[in-house]
Amino acid sequence: MEGGRVYGGSNISSILLPNQRVSSSSTADNNNLLISPSSSAFPGSRSMVNFSDASGFNFSGKSFFRSFDYEENGDEDFDEYLRQPEKKRRLTVDQVEFLERSFEVENKLEPQRKVQLAKDLGLQPRQVAIWFQNRRARWKTKLLEKDYDSLKASYDTLKINYENLLKETEKLKTEVLTLTNQHLLNGEEVENSESLHLIEQCPTQTQQLIPNEVSGERLLDVTAVVCKQESFNSSNSDVVDTDSPRYINGLHSSALLMEPANSSHVFEVDQPDLSQDEDENFSKNMYNSSKLEEPNPPANSCNYGFLAAEDQPVWFWSC
DNA sequence: AGAGTCAAAGAGTACT
DNA sequence: AGTACTCTTTGACTCT
Protein backbone atom coordinates (compact mmCIF):
# COMPACT_ATOMS: atom_id res chain seq x y z
CA MET A 1 0.00 0.00 0.00
CA GLU A 2 2.24 2.79 -1.14
CA GLY A 3 2.18 5.75 -3.38
CA GLY A 4 -1.04 7.57 -3.03
CA ARG A 5 -3.26 4.75 -1.96
CA VAL A 6 -5.31 5.19 1.12
CA TYR A 7 -6.71 2.54 3.38
CA GLY A 8 -10.14 4.00 3.50
CA GLY A 9 -12.07 7.13 4.05
CA SER A 10 -15.16 8.79 2.87
CA ASN A 11 -13.95 12.12 1.77
CA ILE A 12 -11.94 12.02 -1.36
CA SER A 13 -10.99 14.91 -3.48
CA SER A 14 -7.57 16.09 -4.48
CA ILE A 15 -4.17 16.91 -3.13
CA LEU A 16 -3.10 19.70 -5.36
CA LEU A 17 -0.42 22.25 -5.10
CA PRO A 18 -0.83 24.51 -8.08
CA ASN A 19 2.79 25.36 -8.60
CA GLN A 20 4.55 22.74 -6.59
CA ARG A 21 5.03 19.06 -6.82
CA VAL A 22 5.17 17.52 -3.40
CA SER A 23 7.93 15.11 -4.15
CA SER A 24 10.90 15.46 -6.38
CA SER A 25 10.87 11.73 -6.74
CA SER A 26 7.31 11.27 -7.71
CA THR A 27 6.81 8.15 -9.67
CA ALA A 28 3.98 6.63 -11.55
CA ASP A 29 3.34 4.71 -8.41
CA ASN A 30 2.74 7.94 -6.60
CA ASN A 31 0.04 8.91 -9.01
CA ASN A 32 1.76 12.24 -9.46
CA LEU A 33 0.06 13.66 -6.46
CA LEU A 34 -0.16 17.35 -6.09
CA ILE A 35 -1.04 19.24 -2.98
CA SER A 36 -3.69 21.85 -2.91
CA PRO A 37 -3.37 24.84 -0.65
CA SER A 38 -7.09 25.12 -0.78
CA SER A 39 -7.42 21.92 1.10
CA SER A 40 -10.63 22.81 2.71
CA ALA A 41 -11.51 19.32 1.66
CA PHE A 42 -9.98 18.00 4.91
CA PRO A 43 -12.55 18.86 7.47
CA GLY A 44 -12.36 15.89 9.76
CA SER A 45 -10.03 15.17 12.60
CA ARG A 46 -8.57 12.35 10.60
CA SER A 47 -6.65 12.27 7.42
CA MET A 48 -9.08 13.16 4.73
CA VAL A 49 -6.72 12.69 1.89
CA ASN A 50 -7.99 13.88 -1.43
CA PHE A 51 -6.67 12.79 -4.74
CA SER A 52 -6.55 14.05 -8.21
CA ASP A 53 -4.73 12.62 -11.12
CA ALA A 54 -2.08 14.96 -12.35
CA SER A 55 -3.08 14.25 -15.86
CA GLY A 56 -6.37 15.86 -15.13
CA PHE A 57 -8.46 12.82 -14.47
CA ASN A 58 -10.50 13.49 -11.43
CA PHE A 59 -10.69 10.74 -8.86
CA SER A 60 -13.54 12.26 -7.03
CA GLY A 61 -15.38 10.18 -4.53
CA LYS A 62 -16.39 6.80 -5.79
CA SER A 63 -14.38 6.89 -8.92
CA PHE A 64 -11.17 7.07 -6.93
CA PHE A 65 -11.91 3.93 -5.02
CA ARG A 66 -13.08 2.31 -8.19
CA SER A 67 -9.49 2.56 -9.24
CA PHE A 68 -8.29 0.05 -6.72
CA ASP A 69 -11.20 -1.40 -4.89
CA TYR A 70 -14.55 -0.79 -6.39
CA GLU A 71 -14.28 -3.03 -9.41
CA GLU A 72 -13.69 -5.97 -7.20
CA ASN A 73 -16.41 -5.36 -4.65
CA GLY A 74 -19.24 -3.78 -6.57
CA ASP A 75 -21.53 -0.92 -5.67
CA GLU A 76 -23.07 -2.34 -2.52
CA ASP A 77 -19.77 -3.21 -0.97
CA PHE A 78 -18.40 0.15 -1.86
CA ASP A 79 -21.34 2.01 -0.33
CA GLU A 80 -20.91 -0.01 2.78
CA TYR A 81 -17.24 0.74 2.71
CA LEU A 82 -18.01 4.46 2.54
CA ARG A 83 -20.41 4.22 5.42
CA GLN A 84 -18.10 2.43 7.75
CA PRO A 85 -16.38 4.52 10.38
CA GLU A 86 -13.19 6.12 9.30
CA LYS A 87 -10.20 3.93 9.55
CA LYS A 88 -6.63 4.85 9.98
CA ARG A 89 -4.83 5.40 6.78
CA ARG A 90 -1.24 5.99 5.99
CA LEU A 91 0.11 9.21 4.68
CA THR A 92 1.16 9.10 1.10
CA VAL A 93 4.76 8.65 0.10
CA ASP A 94 4.87 12.23 -1.06
CA GLN A 95 3.45 13.56 2.15
CA VAL A 96 5.92 11.54 4.18
CA GLU A 97 8.81 12.67 2.02
CA PHE A 98 7.77 16.26 2.42
CA LEU A 99 7.49 15.83 6.17
CA GLU A 100 10.82 14.04 6.31
CA ARG A 101 12.55 16.91 4.59
CA SER A 102 10.93 19.29 6.96
CA PHE A 103 11.98 17.14 9.88
CA GLU A 104 15.57 17.18 8.70
CA VAL A 105 15.57 20.93 8.80
CA GLU A 106 14.10 21.09 12.29
CA ASN A 107 12.65 18.28 14.33
CA LYS A 108 10.56 20.61 16.46
CA LEU A 109 7.42 22.10 15.14
CA GLU A 110 6.53 25.71 15.76
CA PRO A 111 2.83 26.45 15.50
CA GLN A 112 3.27 28.57 12.40
CA ARG A 113 5.26 25.92 10.65
CA LYS A 114 2.77 23.29 11.63
CA VAL A 115 -0.07 25.23 10.08
CA GLN A 116 1.95 25.88 6.96
CA LEU A 117 2.90 22.23 6.60
CA ALA A 118 -0.65 21.14 7.17
CA LYS A 119 -1.79 23.57 4.55
CA ASP A 120 0.86 22.43 2.08
CA LEU A 121 0.14 18.79 2.61
CA GLY A 122 -3.59 18.98 2.93
CA LEU A 123 -3.53 17.51 6.39
CA GLN A 124 -4.90 18.58 9.70
CA PRO A 125 -2.36 20.50 11.80
CA ARG A 126 -3.04 17.87 14.42
CA GLN A 127 -1.91 15.20 11.99
CA VAL A 128 1.29 17.06 11.28
CA ALA A 129 1.94 17.42 14.99
CA ILE A 130 1.33 13.74 15.53
CA TRP A 131 3.58 12.82 12.66
CA PHE A 132 6.37 14.89 14.18
CA GLN A 133 5.81 13.35 17.56
CA ASN A 134 6.02 9.86 16.16
CA ARG A 135 8.98 10.80 14.02
CA ARG A 136 10.84 12.14 17.03
CA ALA A 137 10.12 8.90 18.85
CA ARG A 138 11.54 6.89 15.95
CA TRP A 139 14.53 9.16 15.75
CA LYS A 140 15.17 8.71 19.45
CA THR A 141 14.97 4.95 19.13
CA LYS A 142 17.49 5.05 16.31
CA LEU A 143 19.73 7.25 18.37
CA LEU A 144 19.55 4.83 21.28
CA GLU A 145 20.43 1.96 19.01
CA LYS A 146 23.36 3.92 17.68
CA ASP A 147 24.53 4.76 21.20
CA TYR A 148 24.19 1.16 22.20
CA ASP A 149 26.27 0.03 19.23
CA SER A 150 29.05 2.47 19.95
CA LEU A 151 29.06 1.61 23.64
CA LYS A 152 29.17 -2.06 22.81
CA ALA A 153 32.08 -1.48 20.47
CA SER A 154 33.96 0.37 23.21
CA TYR A 155 33.17 -2.38 25.65
CA ASP A 156 34.40 -5.07 23.29
CA THR A 157 37.61 -3.19 22.67
CA LEU A 158 38.19 -2.72 26.37
CA LYS A 159 37.47 -6.37 26.97
CA ILE A 160 39.99 -7.47 24.39
CA ASN A 161 42.59 -5.14 25.86
CA TYR A 162 41.82 -6.46 29.29
CA GLU A 163 42.20 -10.05 28.21
CA ASN A 164 45.46 -9.24 26.52
CA LEU A 165 46.66 -7.60 29.70
CA LEU A 166 45.71 -10.68 31.67
CA LYS A 167 47.70 -12.85 29.33
CA GLU A 168 50.62 -10.50 29.56
CA THR A 169 50.38 -10.54 33.34
CA GLU A 170 50.41 -14.32 33.38
CA LYS A 171 53.39 -14.34 31.12
CA LEU A 172 55.24 -11.91 33.34
CA LYS A 173 54.35 -13.89 36.43
CA THR A 174 55.83 -16.99 34.90
CA GLU A 175 58.89 -15.07 33.91
CA VAL A 176 59.33 -13.66 37.39
CA LEU A 177 58.88 -17.09 38.88
CA THR A 178 61.46 -18.59 36.60
CA LEU A 179 63.96 -15.84 37.20
CA THR A 180 63.41 -15.89 40.94
CA ASN A 181 63.82 -19.60 41.02
CA GLN A 182 66.95 -19.38 38.97
CA HIS A 183 68.33 -16.62 41.08
CA LEU A 184 67.62 -18.43 44.29
CA LEU A 185 69.10 -21.63 42.99
CA ASN A 186 72.25 -19.82 42.15
CA GLY A 187 72.49 -18.43 45.63
CA GLU A 188 71.30 -21.55 47.37
CA GLU A 189 74.26 -21.92 49.56
CA VAL A 190 74.09 -18.36 50.75
CA GLU A 191 70.33 -18.72 51.32
CA ASN A 192 70.83 -21.82 53.39
CA SER A 193 73.31 -20.17 55.62
CA GLU A 194 71.06 -17.15 56.02
CA SER A 195 68.16 -19.43 56.80
CA LEU A 196 70.09 -21.06 59.51
CA HIS A 197 70.90 -17.67 60.87
CA LEU A 198 67.23 -16.73 60.91
CA ILE A 199 66.25 -19.95 62.58
CA GLU A 200 68.59 -19.09 65.32
CA GLN A 201 66.88 -15.72 65.65
CA CYS A 202 63.35 -17.10 65.77
CA PRO A 203 61.83 -17.74 69.20
CA THR A 204 61.70 -21.32 70.13
CA GLN A 205 58.99 -23.60 68.81
CA THR A 206 57.69 -20.98 66.41
CA GLN A 207 59.99 -21.79 63.61
CA GLN A 208 58.90 -23.77 60.67
CA LEU A 209 60.48 -24.51 57.42
CA ILE A 210 58.40 -23.82 54.39
CA PRO A 211 58.05 -27.13 52.65
CA ASN A 212 59.09 -27.32 49.08
CA GLU A 213 55.54 -28.17 48.28
CA VAL A 214 52.73 -25.79 49.11
CA SER A 215 49.14 -26.90 48.69
CA GLY A 216 50.32 -30.02 47.05
CA GLU A 217 52.08 -28.16 44.28
CA ARG A 218 55.78 -28.09 43.95
CA LEU A 219 56.83 -24.54 44.38
CA LEU A 220 60.17 -22.94 44.79
CA ASP A 221 63.04 -25.27 45.06
CA VAL A 222 64.35 -23.28 47.90
CA THR A 223 64.30 -23.34 51.62
CA ALA A 224 62.65 -20.39 53.24
CA VAL A 225 62.09 -19.64 56.84
CA VAL A 226 58.80 -18.79 58.45
CA CYS A 227 58.36 -17.36 61.86
CA LYS A 228 55.09 -16.55 63.47
CA GLN A 229 54.20 -12.91 63.45
CA GLU A 230 54.47 -12.58 67.17
CA SER A 231 58.12 -13.29 66.81
CA PHE A 232 58.66 -9.99 65.10
CA ASN A 233 57.99 -6.42 65.64
CA SER A 234 54.87 -5.62 63.64
CA SER A 235 56.29 -2.29 62.64
CA ASN A 236 58.63 -4.14 60.40
CA SER A 237 55.92 -5.73 58.35
CA ASP A 238 53.17 -4.66 56.04
CA VAL A 239 50.70 -7.37 55.19
CA VAL A 240 47.82 -6.87 52.84
CA ASP A 241 44.76 -8.98 53.44
CA THR A 242 45.96 -10.21 56.77
CA ASP A 243 42.59 -11.85 57.43
CA SER A 244 43.13 -14.23 54.62
CA PRO A 245 43.93 -17.74 55.85
CA ARG A 246 45.31 -18.62 52.51
CA TYR A 247 48.93 -17.62 52.59
CA ILE A 248 50.57 -20.81 53.49
CA ASN A 249 48.79 -24.07 53.88
CA GLY A 250 48.76 -25.18 57.48
CA LEU A 251 50.13 -22.00 58.92
CA HIS A 252 48.49 -19.36 61.00
CA SER A 253 46.88 -16.72 58.83
CA SER A 254 49.20 -14.09 60.09
CA ALA A 255 52.27 -16.10 59.45
CA LEU A 256 54.79 -14.20 57.45
CA LEU A 257 56.98 -15.26 54.70
CA MET A 258 60.34 -14.26 55.85
CA GLU A 259 63.38 -13.46 53.92
CA PRO A 260 66.36 -11.55 55.05
CA ALA A 261 64.71 -8.19 54.98
CA ASN A 262 63.74 -5.20 57.00
CA SER A 263 60.13 -5.41 55.99
CA SER A 264 57.86 -7.61 53.99
CA HIS A 265 54.81 -6.96 51.89
CA VAL A 266 52.40 -9.62 50.86
CA PHE A 267 49.31 -9.21 48.76
CA GLU A 268 47.04 -11.41 46.77
CA VAL A 269 46.06 -11.19 43.19
CA ASP A 270 42.51 -12.16 42.48
CA GLN A 271 42.44 -14.82 39.90
CA PRO A 272 39.78 -13.96 37.40
CA ASP A 273 37.90 -16.90 36.04
CA LEU A 274 36.88 -15.81 32.58
CA SER A 275 35.61 -19.23 31.77
CA GLN A 276 32.85 -19.03 34.36
CA ASP A 277 31.28 -15.71 33.76
CA GLU A 278 33.56 -13.84 31.54
CA ASP A 279 31.65 -10.61 31.31
CA GLU A 280 30.93 -10.37 34.99
CA ASN A 281 34.49 -11.07 35.93
CA PHE A 282 35.71 -8.67 33.35
CA SER A 283 33.58 -5.89 34.74
CA LYS A 284 34.46 -6.81 38.29
CA ASN A 285 38.13 -6.96 37.60
CA MET A 286 38.04 -3.75 35.64
CA TYR A 287 36.40 -2.18 38.64
CA ASN A 288 38.94 -3.67 40.99
CA SER A 289 41.91 -3.04 38.80
CA SER A 290 43.00 -0.14 40.94
CA LYS A 291 43.03 -2.41 43.97
CA LEU A 292 45.51 -4.61 42.24
CA GLU A 293 47.95 -1.80 42.20
CA GLU A 294 47.19 -0.70 45.69
CA PRO A 295 49.97 -2.34 47.63
CA ASN A 296 52.67 -0.27 46.07
CA PRO A 297 56.06 -1.59 46.83
CA PRO A 298 58.22 0.77 48.74
CA ALA A 299 60.61 2.83 46.76
CA ASN A 300 63.52 0.88 48.13
CA SER A 301 62.02 -2.48 47.35
CA CYS A 302 64.62 -4.87 46.29
CA ASN A 303 63.06 -8.28 46.18
CA TYR A 304 59.73 -9.70 45.23
CA GLY A 305 58.22 -12.99 44.41
CA PHE A 306 55.15 -15.00 43.86
CA LEU A 307 53.72 -17.99 45.66
CA ALA A 308 50.78 -20.16 44.84
CA ALA A 309 49.02 -21.16 48.00
CA GLU A 310 45.62 -22.88 47.92
CA ASP A 311 45.18 -21.93 44.32
CA GLN A 312 45.65 -18.30 45.22
CA PRO A 313 48.68 -16.52 43.93
CA VAL A 314 50.43 -14.56 46.65
CA TRP A 315 52.75 -11.78 45.74
CA PHE A 316 55.35 -10.58 48.13
CA TRP A 317 58.29 -8.34 48.14
CA SER A 318 60.74 -7.37 50.73
CA CYS A 319 63.72 -5.22 51.46
C1' DA B 1 -1.23 -16.47 11.58
C1' DG B 2 1.96 -13.71 13.59
C1' DA B 3 5.34 -10.07 13.46
C1' DG B 4 6.25 -5.50 12.21
C1' DT B 5 5.00 -0.70 11.00
C1' DC B 6 2.54 3.41 11.32
C1' DA B 7 -1.08 6.87 12.54
C1' DA B 8 -3.53 8.13 16.27
C1' DA B 9 -5.38 8.32 21.12
C1' DG B 10 -4.75 8.87 25.94
C1' DA B 11 -2.27 9.61 30.29
C1' DG B 12 1.06 12.09 32.52
C1' DT B 13 4.20 16.04 32.75
C1' DA B 14 6.56 20.57 32.10
C1' DC B 15 6.24 25.14 30.97
C1' DT B 16 4.18 29.73 30.50
C1' DA C 1 -5.76 26.84 32.51
C1' DG C 2 -3.91 26.02 28.24
C1' DT C 3 -0.55 24.12 25.35
C1' DA C 4 2.83 21.06 23.76
C1' DC C 5 5.59 17.55 24.79
C1' DT C 6 6.94 12.35 25.92
C1' DC C 7 5.67 7.78 26.63
C1' DT C 8 2.67 4.00 26.09
C1' DT C 9 -0.97 1.71 23.98
C1' DT C 10 -4.32 0.74 20.38
C1' DG C 11 -6.05 -0.47 16.01
C1' DA C 12 -5.48 -0.81 11.02
C1' DC C 13 -2.77 -2.44 7.81
C1' DT C 14 1.29 -4.91 5.31
C1' DC C 15 4.52 -8.46 4.86
C1' DT C 16 6.37 -13.04 5.18
Describe the structure.
- The chain has 319 residues and is of the alpha+beta class.
- Helix content is 44%, strand content 11%.
- The protein contains 6 helices and 9 strands; from the N terminus they run αααααβββββββαββ.
- The strands form 3 sheets. A 4-stranded mixed β-sheet has the order 5-7-9-8.
- A hairpin with a 2-residue loop joins β2 (213-214) and β3 (217-218).
- α3 crosses α4 (125-186).
- The longest helix is centred in the middle third of the chain and has 62 residues, at 125-186.
- The termini are far apart.
- 22% of the residues are buried.
- Mean pLDDT is 54; it is low at 1-85, 198-276 and 288-319.
- The structure holds a DNA duplex (16 and 16 nucleotides).
- Through-space gap between termini: 82 Å
Radius of gyration: 41 Å
Mean pLDDT, to the nearest integer, reads 54
Structural class, from secondary structure content?
alpha+beta
- Main beta sheet strand tally, sense and closure: 4 strands, mixed
Trace the largest sheet across and list its strands: 5-7-9-8
Low-confidence spans? 1-85, 198-276, 288-319
Number of helices: 6
Strand content: 5-15%
Number of strands: 9
* Helix-strand pattern: HHHHHEEEEEEEHEE
The coarse silhouette is rod-shaped
The percentage helix is 40-55%
Keywords: Coiled coil, DNA-binding, Homeobox, Nucleus, Transcription, Transcription regulation
Protein name: Homeobox-leucine zipper protein
InterPro entries: HD (IPR001356), HDZip_class_I_plant (IPR045224), Homeobox_CS (IPR017970), Homeodomain-like_sf (IPR009057), HTH_motif (IPR000047), Leu_zip_homeo (IPR003106)
Domain Homeobox: 82-142
